[in-house]
Amino acid sequence: MEDYAEQLFGASGERTPAQVKKLVAARRERSARLVSPDGPQLHFVLGEGAIHWQVGGPKTMAKQLLRLIELQDLPTVTIQVVPFASGVHAALGYAFTLLLQPAEQQDRAYFESLFASKLIHDKATVDGYRRRFAQAVEHALTPNDTSDYLATVAARL
């Protein structure tokens, strides 16, 4: 995971090696909290292209895919891949995060671009993101099929 993160954080060439290491360390700490037994439920839906885009070369990418399979085995994590062959869906081309809260709190949607990010509180807009997420899930492989597919791709690298 760290080799993968280093490649992503260093890709622009605008960060020093020390800045990249600091960002990787922060991601490692955040990841540890997220996948702890008392962490939140996490559900990721990835486009197939994300698993074929070689970040850091074949060895780094294979390690990353195998790490996703390990995460999939945790009771709090679900990972699904939307295959190219599934066709178009309403979330295609959009990266976003849904932050679903306990009933007494307001759900939110979040997205970021290269130089900006936005946290959305408006219920109607958040509901639109929720519908798009549901459509992506409908087009995705099951979690078990996703793990099998990730293992197949990793083995080919």
Plain-language structure description:
With 157 residues, the chain is an alpha+beta fold. It has one domain. It is 50% helix and 15% strand. The protein contains 6 helices and 5 strands, in the order ααβααββββαα. The chain has helices at 2-10, 17-34, 48-52, 58-72, 123-139, 143-156; strands at residues 42-47, 77-82, 97-99, 108-112, 117-120. Helix 1 crosses helix 2 and helix 4 (58-72) packs antiparallel against helix 6 (143-156). It is globular. The two termini are 16 Å apart.
Which key terms come to mind for this protein?
single chain, 157 residues, alpha+beta, 50% helix, globular
Concise structural overview:
This protein has 157 residues and is of the alpha+beta class. It has helices at residues 2-10, 17-34, 48-52, 58-72, 123-139, 143-156; strands at 42-47, 77-82, 97-99, 108-112, 117-120. The chain has one domain (40-156).
